[in-house]
Amino acid sequence: MKTRVYVTLKNGVLDPQGKAIHHALEGLGFSGVNDVRAGKLIELDLADNVGDADVEAMCRKLLANMVIENFRIERVADAAPAA
Amino acid sequence: MKTRVYVTLKNGVLDPQGKAIHHALEGLGFSGVNDVRAGKLIELDLADNVGDADVEAMCRKLLANMVIENFRIERVADAAPAA
Lengths: 83, 83
What we know:
2 copies of one chain form a homodimer. By secondary structure, the first copy, chain A, is α+β, with helices and mostly antiparallel strands. Chain A has helices at residues 16-27, 52-63; strands spanning 2-9, 33-46, 69-76.
């Protein structure tokens, strides 16, 4: 079973990567960009017996830094490709 | 207007970061993890006059490396938080 984990910085946490992307977009001439926040998308291919509690534990122990990041778990039907 | 861009590696492209996460999860004792693919989630806060074509151009020129990455653009209603 396919599961996606979205890891994003908590509000108020400085995002130097987002700032750099924002600056680069403006340098390329793109206007109308008010803010950019960079995060992580982790796609897990899991056995069917791996439950939500296990995935949550993976996030808390490894995938997200709970001090500065939030995470969101999304179970994906096999058919929907990420991109 | 809030827009999310999901950047993922194309199939077949080696993902060392995903491999490292996979290895670390197993080291922490998590079983049932068949594969891990790491990608990027970029949240853009855009002015209303920035159209889909502009966002696509941002992706092609900067946010995604078109040789090895795919991207998917998602327009977000203001209410839905990312995580």
